[in-house]
Please model this.
Amino acid sequence: DAGVTQSPTHLIKTRGQHVTLRCSPISGHKSVSWYQQVLGQGPQFIFQYYEKEERGRGNFPDRFSARQFPNYSSELNVNALLLGDSALYLCASSFLAGADRAYEQYFGPGTRLTVT
Amino acid sequence: LAKTTQPISMDSYEGQEVNITCSHNNIATNDYITWYQQFPSQGPRFIIQGYKTKVTNEVASLFIPADRKSSTLSLPRVSLSDTAVYYCLVGPLGSYKLIFGSGTRLLVRP
Model:
């Protein structure tokens, strides 16, 4: 079975631009979460979507937005990019949003975003 | 959510047993302890989860004392491929988000 897939793998943008990152969850998983990982730190929670609805949001500015589609894939959008947005953006999927194994999330390989 | 404290880094040699301890003094009654592993340029991978005493799977063992204020991830007979960052997370099963700290960077030497 395919794992979580993310595209693109790498991306270079300039300050002020907009970026869209994409994620396809494991087949059958209905929940998608997004994390930002700055070099040398652990991943930081951005959003969780379950059944196309936002279930949670981390401490990120409104420049960050996301959505989930009927096929449970998801997009993360970041507007007005700043240098500090340079990071690895990770997508994780799980079957349910709050069940026994909620803490077992399956991560994709990430998208490496560089803002210059 | 409970805050966790782990060593920043650890060194070991192939074939040795590695124990990584995590402190979580403010753990709540309904919190579980979960460990993730992350290799460079990859997303974290679930290793093991437990609530109390001992849990063992094909990859690792997790030891949790009675007061649950700490936990120890035990990796038996490590190999070079176990070089990674290991994260200890604490939270309720119903939580929709994972709270990662800075993790422990394990370096396994030949």
